[in-house]
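We modelled each protein-ligand pair independently. The example shown here corresponds to the uridine-diphosphate-N-acetylglucosamine entry; the chain sequence is given first, followed by the ligand as SMILES.
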Amino acid sequence: MEQFVIEGGKPLYGTVRIHGAKNAALPILAATLLTGGIHEIHDVPRLKDIEVMGRILGALGARFSRAGTRIQVDASTLRTCHIPDVLMRQMRSSIFLMGPLLSRLGEVSVTRPGGCAIGSRPIDLHLYGLQSLGAHIEEKDGLIRCSASKLTGATIHFKTPSVGATENVMLAAVKAEGTTVIRNAAREPEIVDLQSFLNRMGADVQGAGTDTIIIHGVRELHPASHEIIPDRIVAGTLAVAAAAAGGEVTLTNTIPDHLRYTLHLLNKAGVSVSPDGDAIRIRSDGRHRAVGRIETQPYPGFPTDMQPQMMAFLCLADGTSVICERIFDARLKHVSELARMGADLTVEGNTVWIRGVPHLTGADVEATDLRAGAALVVAGLSARGVTRVGGVQHIDRGYEGLEEMLSSLGGRIYRNSRSDSD
Ligand SMILES: CC(=O)N[C@H]1[C@@H](OP(=O)(O)OP(=O)(O)OC[C@H]2O[C@@H](n3ccc(=O)[nH]c3=O)[C@H](O)[C@@H]2O)O[C@H](CO)[C@@H](O)[C@@H]1O
Ligand SMILES: C=C(OP(=O)(O)O)C(=O)O
C-alpha cells in the first residue's frame, strides 16, 4: 500500500495546469458506446476510474486506446450487454453504461455499482428514468436486467436532482423515439459537457445547465471529437491548499465560473482570489477567518466534493465555521482524521462545528475516500511536522499526480510504499 509523506508548513508558489474533469470524462466515455466509429476525446486525465472505464469498454467489445491525454474509442465491435460484477464494483460511474447499452443493444445486465463510501447512494432515480423511457427492469439475485424493444421519449421528474441519473437518462434518450423532458435535472457543468459531446455526435439535446433538459430523439449518431472541461474540483482543491499553506499560486486551464462558490468562500475567509481569463491566482499569508455556516448543495451551490478540503482549510481559520453535509449521508469520515492532527471539531448528525486552531500538527492519518484523502493532504501541507496519509489509492481515483503538482509548487510531499509495521 502507498502513502503520501508530507512535511508541512511550506508555502506554495508557482503555476499549475488543471487537468480534464474525471466526472465529465466518465459519462462522455460511456456515450461513445452509442454508435460505432472512432471517437477522439482530449484532455482525459490518467486516473484509476478512467482506467476502469477503459477496461469495461474493452470487456464490452469496444476498442479503447490512449496516447498521452487523448483517448480513442471505437465501439463498432460491441458484442455484449453484460458488465461483470468485478468491474461494476470498482466505481460508481459504471452505472452510466446502462443508458448507452440499452439504447444501442436494447438490453443491459449489471450489478449495483461501487464508488466512494460516502453514503447509501441508491440507484432508484436511474432505474425510474430508464423505466419511464419504456425499459423493463428486473432485479434478481443481485443482477439488474434491463430491456426495451423500443425506447420512447417521456417526461421524467426527478424528486431530487441527481447528476448520474440525469446523465444516464440523457444517454438513453438521445436515440429514443420522440421527445424526452427531464425536470428537476441536475445542473452541474459536467452535464453541460455531456450535452456538448452528444450534440457533436448529432444528438439534439438542449437545456443542460438548467433544471429542464429537452432531448429530441434522433435516428442516427456519428463519432465525434471533444475536449473535456477542466476539473473544477481539482482546481478547487489546489486553491484551498494554497490558501491553507500560504503563498501565491496560479491555476491555469480553469473555468473560474465553475468554481464560483468555492472562490467566494475563500474570498470571504480573507484569501486574495483573482480570476483572469482561464487562470485563477490565489494569494494567502496562511492566516484567514471563519466563514459562518455553509451547506453542501447541488450546483451552483457549495459542492459536496469540496466539503472535506474546505473543512481542512477552515480548521485553521480564526473563529468558528459550521459545515452541513446535505448531499451524502456518510461523508464526514475525514473529521476523526483531522482531529488526530489537532483540529477542534464537533459533529452532530451531518453538521460539523469547526473551531479554528492556531496550527495543526503532523500525524499518521488514513484517507477513507477520494475527497477525504484530498482534505488530509491540504491539512498536511499546512501542519507543523510530518503527516503520513494512507489510502492513497482513493486519491488516485480523482487527482492525476497530486504529489507532482504540489511538489512543482514547492510543497514537500512524496509517495512512499508502506509496510504494515510502519
Ligand atoms: C461520477 C460523478 O459524476 N460523481 C459525482 C456525482 O455522483 P452521483 O451522480 O452518484 O450523485 P447524485 O447527484 O446522483 O447524488 C445526489 C443525491 O441524490 C441521491 N440519489 C442519487 C441517485 C439515485 O438514484 N437516488 C438518489 O436518491 C444521492 O443519494 C444523493 O443524495 O454527483 C455527486 C454530487 O454532486 C458528486 O459527489 C460525485 O462526485
Ligand atoms: C464521489 C466522487 O466520485 P464518485 O461519484 O465517482 O464516487 C467524487 O468525485 O468526489
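The longest strand covers residues 2-7.
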